[in-house]
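Backbone-to-sequence.
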């Protein structure tokens, strides 16, 4: 069909509202009729509908991930576009242009008709066009020059395809436009469909990962012998101990799986801020003596194993436990382990960081308040953390920062086993298991008269001391391995990370080390960093960088770490250890260190 004939058909239609349907593609005829019925001006020379710049920036931020993968896919599949001077456009599902990039000449022509970021490019807004038809029909389509309903778009030939999410809902539209003749329309359409399919897969994977993350965060207990299921009834994930039996279950209907497997599950609703977000199907097992549940990594360190054994025994009792450990050493994880190995595991674990609140805020947070107790108080009152922990466990972190007045209030609650909310008159009985933690030694604070002696004896019934990370040399490899597995990141130089990490003190302990691993993963996803680059990533997250010396680390371990770091180059190792090469030989012989050749 010649372009002139199409132009004449357009003129005839806009003047008489009649057209020979055999001479035009069906989707063009339907679109012209749609535009006419919605009062679109066929003689419009530019788009007039546009969102505000604030709305556009919000949209671009919201869809930054989508824009990024679309750009990557266009670059990757660029050779499939048999088109001259292309202009690529991405819109949201309402036809708002959120990204545009391409040939300068075509871009200027598009600017003349306001076909730019922020413009609304639906059929109602600008007449028949590939974007509008693709969004309305959910079909890929090409619209050539005079097939457009409005004059503004007549210089262009456009091809569009809708982009769907994991639920087969339209979230965006990808378009390529040109003012040149489109010689290979099928190839262009094929390329766009390929991009849309790849983008849809990545969006679906991202949505699935986010859904998994939200559901995992909603769990208040370890995931064991369980299936996580989305609101659509499809399995999102299986716990590690179920991977073998349910290896291929992700994405399948949970009802279908349960019909195939001879298991009996208990279904549990999962909520996020009172909103149902999914389900946990947990295997129903006969009750037996509960086994010890430990959070965090499986430690190989003797000191930590001793700590864990003491914690395991203490958890079974009802006695108050105090955990002393440096910042970031895992006190919160230890408190969680205590709770889920106690007789109160089916009740709530309530945690309060005493150091994060002022005295007045801490008082109302712990004891709650009655309706209208003070200016700004909720008219419905507030149930304090102590009452929230009734029948469960109350974990008070940074107890050493509690003021003397609050120490007295807590002591009274522990002695009377009753509390009175602020502004209230009635005493309320309460029963909870108390676990406290500090990064300063309470004994020394008592000696300095900074902590009440009577409260000390209430809290310090079973004291446990967490070993710092620098004393857990055996665990560095386990930490790194667990991090890599969680991130699905397996660099060939993984072992070098833990070896170099052993040379530092990590005053922020596990938290500081984890932050370093996050930076390493972000900046070096594939390329192996130099030792200097790794050290720099450690230094930027440390308050005070300090390398371990002979006085604080076993000399044999230090020599082994240095040999590995220098690839067993003895001269370099001796220089790094600040010792003569002959001295290094004697120590290698003394400690029976195997030297790789």
């Amino acid at each position: 069909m010649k372009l002139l004939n199409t132009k004449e058909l357009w003129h005839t239609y806009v003047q008489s509202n009649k057209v020979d349907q055999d001479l035009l593609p069906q989707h063009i005829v339907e679109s012209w009729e749609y535009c006419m019925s919605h009062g679109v001006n066929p003689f419009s020379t530019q788009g007039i509908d546009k969102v505000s710049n604030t709305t556009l920036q919000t949209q671009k931020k919201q869809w930054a991930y989508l824009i990024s993968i679309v750009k990557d896919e266009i670059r990757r599949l660029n050779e499939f576009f048999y088109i001259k001077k292309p202009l690529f456009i991405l819109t949201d599902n309402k036809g708002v242009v959120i990204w545009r990039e391409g040939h300068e000449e075509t871009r200027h022509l598009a600017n003349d008709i306001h076909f730019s970021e922020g413009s609304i490019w639906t059929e109602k807004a600008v007449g028949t066009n590939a974007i509008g038809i693709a969004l309305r029909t959910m079909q890929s389509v090409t619209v050539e020059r005079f097939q457009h309903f409005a004059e503004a778009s007549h210089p262009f030939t456009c091809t569009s395809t809708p982009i769907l999410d994991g639920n087969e809902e339209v979230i965006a539209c990808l378009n390529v436009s040109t003012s040149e003749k489109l010689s290979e329309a099928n190839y262009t359409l094929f390329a766009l469909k390929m991009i849309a399919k790849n983008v849809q897969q990545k969006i679906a994977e991202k949505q699935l990962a986010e859904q998994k993350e939200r559901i995992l965060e909603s769990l208040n207990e370890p995931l064991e012998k369980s299936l996580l299921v989305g609101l659509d009834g499809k399995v999102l994930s299986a716990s590690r101990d179920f991977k073998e039996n349910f290896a291929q279950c992700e994405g399948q209907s949970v009802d279908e799986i349960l019909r195939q497997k001879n298991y009996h599950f208990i279904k549990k609703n999962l909520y996020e801020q009172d909103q149902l977000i999914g389900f946990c199907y947990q295997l129903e097992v006969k009750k037996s003596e509960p086994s010890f549940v430990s959070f965090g990594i499986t430690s190989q360190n003797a000191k930590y194993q001793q700590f864990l054994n003491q914690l395991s025994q203490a958890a079974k009792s009802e006695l108050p436990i105090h955990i002393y450990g440096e910042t970031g050493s895992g006190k919160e994880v230890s408190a969680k382990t205590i709770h889920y190995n106690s007789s109160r595991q089916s009740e709530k674990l309530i945690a309060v960081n005493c150091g994060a609140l002022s005295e007045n805020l801490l008082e109302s947070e712990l004891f709650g308040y009655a309706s209208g107790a003070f200016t700004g108080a909720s008219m419905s009152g507030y149930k304090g953390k102590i009452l929230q922990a009734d029948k469960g466990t109350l974990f008070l972190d940074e107890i050493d920062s509690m003021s003397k007045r609050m120490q007295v209030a807590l002591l009274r609650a522990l002695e009377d086993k009753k509390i009175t909310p602020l502004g209230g008159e009635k005493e309320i009985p309460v029963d909870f298991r108390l676990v406290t933690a500090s990064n300063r030694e309470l004994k020394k604070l008592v000696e300095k008269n900074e902590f009440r002696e009577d409260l000390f004896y209430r809290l310090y019934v079973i004291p446990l001391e967490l070993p710092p990370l620098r004393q857990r040399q055996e665990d560095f490899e386990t930490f790194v391995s667990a991090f890599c597995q969680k991130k699905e990141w397996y660099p060939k130089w993984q072992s070098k990370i833990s070896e170099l990490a052993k040379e530092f003190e990590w005053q922020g302990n596990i938290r500081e080390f984890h932050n370093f691993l996050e930076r390493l993963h972000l900046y070096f996803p594939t390329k192996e960093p130099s030792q200097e680059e790794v050290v720099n990533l450690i230094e930027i997250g440390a308050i005070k960088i300090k390398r371990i010396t002979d006085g604080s680390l076993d000399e044999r371990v230090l020599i082994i770490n240095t040999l590995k770091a220098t690839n067993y180059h003895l001269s370099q190792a001796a220089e790094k250890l600040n010792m003569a090469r002959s001295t290094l030989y004697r120590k290698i012989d003394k400690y029976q260190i195997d030297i790789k050749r």
